[in-house]
Amino acid sequence: MSTASLTTEQINFFKTFGYLVLKQRFTAAELATIQHEFNFMMTEQYGPDSYDGSSRHWAMMMDEDTPFFASLLEDPRFLRVARQLYGDDVIGMGVDCNRYTGDTPWHRDTQSVHQRGVKFAFYLQPVEAESGALRVIPGMHRLPDDDAFAVSVNGMAPAAVPCTALPSEPGDVVAFDLRLWHAAIGGDCDRRMCTVVYYENPKTAEEIEVHRKMGEINVRYGIREFEPKRQYLYSKSWMANPCNSPDRQAWIDRLSEIDYYATPGVVEV
């Protein structure tokens, strides 16, 4: 993956439209490692041959069993870009992997426009507009919270919504603002997508409260809904910060300060 920072033009495009497609950011060797760790973790969490296409599988990828994935939050190839977009004190939140089945409806990845951040998504197989590529409504990260819009857009036929599809190949990375409305259409069985997520450090009381509640929400929609073997988001080993990463420690300290880790299931006990 290129270590180059974003250009001014790329930053302006992202801030205006809410997304970027970064071509061929992983090497062939890295892609092989990604596939190996992906297969290992899905087998570890759900058992061999457990995916039958009837429902999505999901898992966090942040401990010693998946060292390459676990390194990505602190990898300057991601962290540098996140800081360019959301500030030097951006918080690294998580790395996960997914096996999707079918369409993904229109949604945002935040509970409020008072949460800002970036998700880096990469697929382990080619995806096109009609086979599960990410679709976005450019610029809609600027839209205020609007329940009426959410009801209306999800009441339409997915293909009828004006949008931009973002085809990608293995090695590509799609970056998008977490507030951007996005979906996927026609994703066939076992669409494999991995993500690396950063949030802007919350400052106001409203931002802090929304972020604090996110721990409970992540447990509910991650652990409770998908029921992986591991009933926690962050392992003891990750929280121990064995490599003494100053970036990771700053994130842990800040999230502890705002009680993000307080909900049972957020951290391994």
Order of helices and strands: HEHEHHEEEEHEEEEHHH
Global Rg: 18 Å
- Poorly predicted spans: none
User: What is the CATH architecture descriptor?
Assistant: Sandwich
Q: Please, how many domains? A: 1
**Total count of strands:** 10
Strand order of the largest sheet: 1-8-5-10-3-2
- Percentage of residues assigned to helices: 25-40%
Number of helical elements:
8
Q: Terminal Cα separation, in Å?
A: 35 Å
Q: Which descriptor suits the 3D outline?
A: globular
What name goes with the CATH superfamily? q2cbj1_9rhob like domain
CATH class: Mainly Beta
**CATH topology-level name:** Jelly Rolls
Features:
6-stranded antiparallel beta sheet, 10 strands, 34% helix, 269 residues, alpha+beta, Jelly Rolls, 4-stranded antiparallel beta sheet, single chain
Topology readout:
Elements: H1 8-17, E1 19-22, H2 28-46, E2 57-60, H3 67-71, H4 76-86, E3 91-100, E4 104-107, E5 117-123, E6 134-136, H5 147-154, E7 164-166, E8 173-177, E9 182-184, E10 191-199, H6 205-226, H7 236-240, H8 246-257
Antiparallel strand pairs: 1-8, 2-3, 3-10, 4-9, 5-8, 5-10, 6-7, 6-9
Architecture overview:
This protein has a single domain (8-198), classed as q2cbj1_9rhob like domain (Jelly Rolls). The two termini are 35 Å apart. It has 269 residues and is α+β, with helices and mostly antiparallel strands. It has helices spanning 8-17, 28-46, 67-71, 76-86, 147-154, 205-226, 236-240, 246-257; strands spanning 19-22, 57-60, 91-100, 104-107, 117-123, 134-136, 164-166, 173-177, 182-184, 191-199. 34% of the residues lie in helices and 19% in strands. A 6-stranded antiparallel β-sheet has the order 1-8-5-10-3-2. Strands 4-9-6-7 form a 4-stranded antiparallel β-sheet.
